[in-house]
Structures
1.
Amino acid sequence: QSVLTQPPSVSGVPGQRVAISCTGSSSNIGAGHDVHWYQQHPGRAPKLLIYGNNNRPSGVPDRFSGSKSGTSASLAISGLQAEDEADYYCQSYDYRLSVVQVFGTGTKVTVL
Amino acid sequence: QLQLQESGPGLVKPSETLSLTCTVSGGSISSSSYFWGWIRQPPGKGLEWIGSIYYGGSTYYNPSLKSRVATSVDTSKNQFSLKLSSVTAADTAVYYCARQGSGWYYFDYWGQGALVTVSS
């Protein structure tokens, strides 16, 4: 059971803006630890999408953006495209049980 | 371009030890800027971090798996390895190796994944 909670699914039409939340607690996001986001297409390895809350690796379109506030973080996709249909996971650090990396529960984005 | 590739048996019997190796190419595993991690994903489920190792041998593991996990690094072969003991069907998953930044802890390069099934 993950300590980072995401909505199971989010959907939108092409061109729309959608957002995915990642809700944590005072022992992870709320403690100031960075949040990273990954995109995973079926049968493929996850791909780093956002690191350090709001930074995009080279090659990631600027349609993807991240933010963090309090005990939550959010990934926004503006100008939704068909190829954005995938699973998305957040990741952070949690110190409750020693040093631990934790992933969110995952969100399936569907492009209608 | 950095590449990672997992290798190992795709079928392991219950109570035995799962062993996987990750071969790194296009870069050195001895870089001081990175950890090298293992992440798994049961069929149809989410990602679970297993543990990470530094080239010098320092390790940190998911507390829920710590008693059964061991990792090692072979800098001469540019490889790192995972051993998970006393496996059960619940350990059936795709196992990924990945490079992890030692400052921000994100995983920026991933292997393609290796499906390991635990079954008699």
2.
Amino acid sequence: EVQLAESGGGVVRPGGSLRLSCAASGFTFNDYGMSWVRQAPGKGLEWVSGIHWNGGSPGYADSVNGRFTISRDNAKNSLYMEMNSLRVEDTALYFCARSEEIVVGLGASRTWYFDVWGRGTLVTVSS
Amino acid sequence: SFVLTQSPSVSVAPGQTARITCGGDNIGSKSVHWYQQKPGQAPVLVLYDDSDRPSGIPKRFSGSNSGNTATLTISRVEAGDEADYYCQVWDSNSDHPNVVFGGGTKVTVL
């Protein structure tokens, strides 16, 4: 069964750090890009960061760029997110999501969509 | 960055058709994906590349995308379709991923 399981969430003070992990199983991990998507309490989905199958060229939302670092270990089938300088507004449920990449259109442009999601890990930033 | 605009809510009677729109500048030139999220659960992909259904998603879910509006249509709405729905696009001209979600539409089945 294809599964993603996040861990590492918790309560941290503003300015603190946290490291999230996502363990993948049931599929060939290094065939896929991966992403982190978060959801603040009562709010919508926000893409946080994504990384290609080989760990190259990661991308970040403007809201976390320079504070969060995504990485992966294909030998361990694992995705990570190092979160530094945490702010109250980073409080959210953080989902790990498998990122399927396809090429579309006559212009042969790429797109990602998220076909497998974990259940999320809760990060609370509070003093 | 690219902005996706969704109506906050849609109400529909059982058996009727729900249409959920996602607006964006020339969104018809992009590939749009849709997710369903029920309370307390992770999102589920219901459509990808405008109108393709993943395995296990009923044919009642269909999609279109043209001009400045993409639309998710749910035919013969059932009580179990009550959920939040999000559209999503890729918005990057480089190898660095950049993904945008719409604000979400809450579908209420009357």
